[in-house]
Amino acid sequence: MRTTVQDVARAAGVSVSTVSRALTGGSVSPATREAVVAVAHRLGYQPNRAARGLITGRTGNLGLIVPDLRNPFFADVAKGVTARARAVDCGVFISDTDEDPVAELEAIATLRHNTDGILLCSPRAKDAELLAAADPQNTVLLHRRVPGLSSVVADIVDGTRQAVQHLRALGHRRIAYVSGPEDSWATRQRLAGLATFDGDDLEILPIGSVAPTFDGGVLAGDLVLAAPATAVLAYNDLVAMGLLHRLAARGAVVPDRLSVVGYDDVSLAGMSHPPLTSVSVPKDRAGAIGLDLLLGRAGSMTAAQGAEVILPTTLVVRASSGEPPA
Amino acid sequence: MRTTVQDVARAAGVSVSTVSRALTGGSVSPATREAVVAVAHRLGYQPNRAARGLITGRTGNLGLIVPDLRNPFFADVAKGVTARARAVDCGVFISDTDEDPVAELEAIATLRHNTDGILLCSPRAKDAELLAAADPQNTVLLHRRVPGLSSVVADIVDGTRQAVQHLRALGHRRIAYVSGPEDSWATRQRLAGLATFDGDDLEILPIGSVAPTFDGGVLAGDLVLAAPATAVLAYNDLVAMGLLHRLAARGAVVPDRLSVVGYDDVSLAGMSHPPLTSVSVPKDRAGAIGLDLLLGRAGSMTAAQGAEVILPTTLVVRASSGEPPA
DNA sequence: ATGAAAGCGCTAACAG
DNA sequence: CTGTTAGCGCTTTCAT
């Protein structure tokens, strides 16, 4: 059997309530506290979080819901969350919903009762579904905004603008854009960024929507080559990697024939050939801030008050972008 | 306040114990059960797992400890675990220890008290440390074997043999091997596989140990080019990707000048240029089986009995391996 | 500053 | 088959 407060109390010659106070910071005489702490340590006492949660109403755990851990973007988010959780001694339940919106809602329903809060990465579900399933008081949406819920997002509009400005500065005037899932928040933000350049001295060529995956990028490769563009901005890095792959297979040298810019700056971006220029979004920081919001540790802001945090994006220039062909 | 058994009992006009029985499968009259279930559903009742765990002694949760979620290998493992966990309605606490052996041991200490069992990916910590920190009764080691603990591993020795045989069949006679962390179980297994070929008609050229990362592979690239090898087997896919990158930069065409074979077959393997031939290890299946072991769902085997599962490996041939230069 | 006692929500005896 | 009762381990009144 595990050691309980009872054991510690007996060994220290005090009552259980004194042990509890000594360990959680109640008013106890310094001498008593020291003695209790020593005994607790000697016995290897670890409070039973479930029992504590039963009475305090707080579990000390929170839930993280992501569509796919294999996607490096969400791996980064999870990394940020777990790192911060470890620092504040908070448990993290993870739920990989395998891109299934139904599983997503189920996960919300399960976790909201067994945690102090939920960090939710949900690119697919509809706004109304989320609003119906989630408790605004202790849910923080990551990398998506839904009115009525707290959220931590990156400034996608500005990031998109930076990417285009970079290409324009290099001399590009016709830039293809490979879009992702229609009707998603992330897609709309990117389009809003592109709309900034309307009526300017450059042309944005929409190539259509593809799956936000490597295969989606491969598919887009041929479409891009058929367009009169000298550069292409991809929905995300995975799509950009697929593009790079297909362009290489078709003999189109990057960036000589075509410049390629990705989005998200996942860890793979530096490993591609050539290394990928990409808009960097603070994935791990978003996760950490979301956690702080949930735990009321983010200064004055809390999830309960409907916080909306926007983090800056920065363009990371690597070798996949250069001057257009002469 | 959340709805409790009390609420359900009152609304259904029965006692709390009847509600409990009706919902957990005790002996209740069909009519009563139906009524209770209906009321519970109508009230949106969700049992408080903490309270249940307090009395049953089982939390319904388990812990997964990995060194780095960003590493696609562990992302795959986590994916396998969470998928199976969802199927059996079991919560998963995740702990990313950031490659820090101390954090690893801390995570074990924390989780072993708050879960029904631990799935442990620990390539770095020493055998003795693990034995001291972990409870053999409900710990399953993933992708590593330590006498005294249950484990689920892949047949690395055989996988290594398959890789070398593939290269030999292509005509290679001098094969470089880029090793990973010295003194790790995975490294020893690979070396054991290579030792199989001693005194054969081919030569294995050890290139030394590098970090099991992309950068480690980049580093190894030049060393490999300086060796009289026509093929190289890398410690893992990340190293192989780094190798590919460096070889391309040095103008060495793969597989014309040099064949490259990776290990693990992570999702990136198909995205490299050229796509990487790699030894496939069942990462997600290992995770799922480990979970079953912990929950006593793996047929006759259980973690408590010290199960040792070995899963088969298969070579996946892609474009990075071919005949040696004439 | 400390102890006794009352529960948190649930399940498992124990009666009926 | 069902209701009553006693806790699981912990925190938190309420006394002292």
TrEMBL record, chains A, B:
Instruction: Output the CDD domains linked to this UniProt entry.
Output: HTH_LacI, PBP1_LacI_sugar_binding-like
Keyword entries, A-Z: DNA-binding, Transcription, Transcription regulation
Record's keyword annotation contains Lipid biosynthesis: no
> Transcription regulation among the record's keywords?
yes
Which InterPro entries does the record match to this protein?
Answer: HTH_LacI, LacI/GalR-like_sensor, Lambda_DNA-bd_dom_sf, Peripla_BP_I
- One Pfam family, short name: Peripla_BP_3
Cite the GO molecular-function annotations of the record. DNA-binding transcription factor activity; transcription cis-regulatory region binding
Q: Which residues form the HTH lacI-type domain?
A: 3-56
Question: Which first-to-last residue range defines the signal peptide?
Answer: none
Under Gene3D superfamilies, the record lists: 3.40.50.2300, lambda repressor-like DNA-binding domains
Please report the name of this protein according to its UniProt entry: LacI family transcriptional regulator
Cite the source lineage: Bacteria, Bacillati, Actinomycetota, Actinomycetes, Micromonosporales
